[in-house]
Design goal:
Elements: H1 3-19, H2 21-31, H3 36-51, H4 59-73, H5 77-92, H6 101-119, H7 129-144, H8 149-166, H9 190-203
Length: about 200
């Protein structure tokens, strides 16, 4: 993945969040304060616009800059978490001007680590991670098995969506949804929906 391909991926993520703004607002309205669609569309647009000129050849610094711009634009809980993912990925890939398939996987693994470390959440607690982690896991498995990145990303998108759907069986541990107790279990997690959308955009589908 070269610089333009990385910028294009950020553009697709920004676009998919804008296209799904109302859907995310609707999901978040059930368990949160209904601002997720605005936060994600505004935040990822800021991330993309911060690096769209292609002035930064270092792809790690580019991701870090995108994350910083997002954090400044949408300093909400979810905005800060998504920005932390971008910034952690940036730190992991600092000095790279081209990403191998394995390094693209590292980008997503570092993104997950950044979100998990800041959010103090674990798999199975009905959060973003429950959509993102299944995608990242299968991405690594498929690349390690010799599959092409394009094919691996498509499978990652599929698994991320399945992970999002599976949150409808989980008890919420974090945020406003957690106050519902058992009543939170059948609800789909909006954060996991964001994870599925990121993976779908990354795969270009």
């Amino acid at each position: 993945m070269n610089q333009q391909e990385l910028i294009d991926m950020l553009f697709r993520i920004s676009n998919i969040m804008n296209e799904n703004r109302n859907y995310l607002i609707e999901l978040d309205g059930v368990v949160g304060d209904s601002d997720l669609g605005l936060t994600m569309s505004d935040g990822f647009l800021a991330a993309y616009e911060a690096v769209s000129d292609g002035a930064e050849p270092d792809l790690g610094k580019l991701l870090y800059k995108a994350g910083k711009a997002m954090g400044n634009k949408v300093p909400s809980t979810m905005g800060t978490l998504m920005a932390a993912g971008l910034m952690r990925a940036g730190k992991a890939l600092k000095g790279k001007t081209q990403l191998s398939d394995t390094e693209v996987c590292l980008l997503f693994e570092a993104y997950e680590e950044g979100v998990a470390d800041l959010g103090k959440a674990k798999i199975g607690e009905k959060t973003f991670l429950d959509g993102f982690h299944p995608g990242v896991t299968v991405l690594r498995e498929m690349l390690d098995s010799g599959n092409h990145l394009e094919e691996a990303l498509k499978e990652a998108a599929k698994k991320a969506f399945e992970g999002f759907e599976h949150t409808a069986t989980m008890l919420a541990i974090h945020g406003r949804a957690a106050t519902r107790g058992e009543a939170s279990r059948p609800l789909k997690d909006p954060g996991a929906a964001v994870a599925a959308l990121i993976m779908k955009a990354a795969a270009g589908i």
